[in-house]
Amino acid sequence: MENNKLILISDISKPLVKQVFCCAENLITLKNKTAVFLFFETSTRTKISFEMACYKLGVNVVHFNSETSSLKKGESLEETLCNIEAMRPDLLIIRHGADLNIKELYKLNLPVISAGSGDSSHPTQALLDLFTLQEAGLVEKNKKLLFLGDISINRVAKSHQNLLKDWGFEMAYCYPEKCNLNKSSENLKHFKNKAEALVWADVVMVLRLQQERKNFSMEFLESYKKNYQLTLKDLETVNSKKNKALKVMHPGPYVDGLDLDKNITSYEHSFIYKQVQNSVKVRAAIIYSLLKED
Ligand code: NCD
User: Which helix (H) or strand (E) holds 38?
Assistant: First the structure.
């Protein structure tokens, strides 16, 4: 990986993705390595799966708690990072609600993995989703992948747009009128109508509305629920119309009754828990690729 970093999805080349996926199946332990976890934002799946990945590899884990750190005394994040670097851990895994100062991260003299940054980047989620798609035999088959939700502030969708185009996917975006379009959606096909979009797609990646990053009015949320939530009924309708099964993905967490009907998690063609299951081995393989000694 470019300079031992996975901060943006563009830091990993296609041959290296193949190598990581291969290594996800045959992990070897790493001795005497220490990873520091800097999580400034809530996380369930990402944090636990990174931690499990470290334990699987035999990598020691040190957790940083921003609430009890010197940041509370006025130290800057840049200075905190310099101090952590000075202790010479082998790896830094960082998640932040704001877009991280990427230049500062690239300057650090140790491997760094982004576990999600602001609304712009979440490379490991994109990679584990790609691994899940590969496992289902859907890669490089000209499949149509639909993002359902507001991609304008969604870091998972943004990392996917840069990754999936190289793996033979045609991508589209289905969203309410009020979600601002930005540069990230320029190369996508657009739908306003959910039923039409679902008929077009082979796979639908449902996205959670990022309410912590944007204020949505009650009126918007009510109409979103009605028009953009994915329901079992939608799947029954589209599957009988197309005579084939639409696959469902979601990076999690989903909000029951807003972006997804919770019954979909047990739908036969849902990959939602598969994505979570794969998160441990794919993250372990990424850590292994960064820390292994040649
Ligand atoms: C995503 C995230 O945190 O960016 N989830 C995850 O990492 N599993 C998506 C989201 O929060 O909607």
Answer: strand 34-39
Distance CA 229, CA 147 (A): 12
Using a 6 Å cutoff on CB, does residue 250 contact ligand 1? no
129 closest CA partner among 206, 210, 34: 206
Q: Please, which pLDDT band fits residue 176 given cuts at 50, 70 and 90?
A: confident
pLDDT in tens, 42-78: 999 999 999 999 999 999 999 998 888 998 889 999 9
**CA of residue 126 to ligand 1 center, whole Å:** 11
pTM over 0.90: yes
For the cut 90, the answer to whether the pLDDT of residue 224 exceeds it is yes
Neighbours of 233 (CB within 10 A): 10
Please give the DSSP secondary-structure letter assigned to residue 61: E
Residue among 9, 57, 115, 121 nearest 289 (CA): 57
Q: Would you say the C-alpha torsion 289, 93, 28, 272 has a positive or negative sign?
A: negative
Closest by Cα among 85, 81, 28, 86 to 58: 28
Judge if the beta carbon of residue 45 lies within 6 A of ligand 1: yes
Our answer on whether the CB atom of 155 is closer than 6 Å to any ligand 1 atom is yes
Q: What average pLDDT does this structure show over 166-194?
A: 84
Residue 4's contacts (CB-CB under 8 Å, 6 or more residues apart) are 110, 111, 112, 290
CA of 203 to the centre of ligand 1 (A): 19
d(CA 240, ligand 1 centre) in Å: 31
Q: Is 96 in the pocket of ligand 1 (CB under 6 A)?
A: no
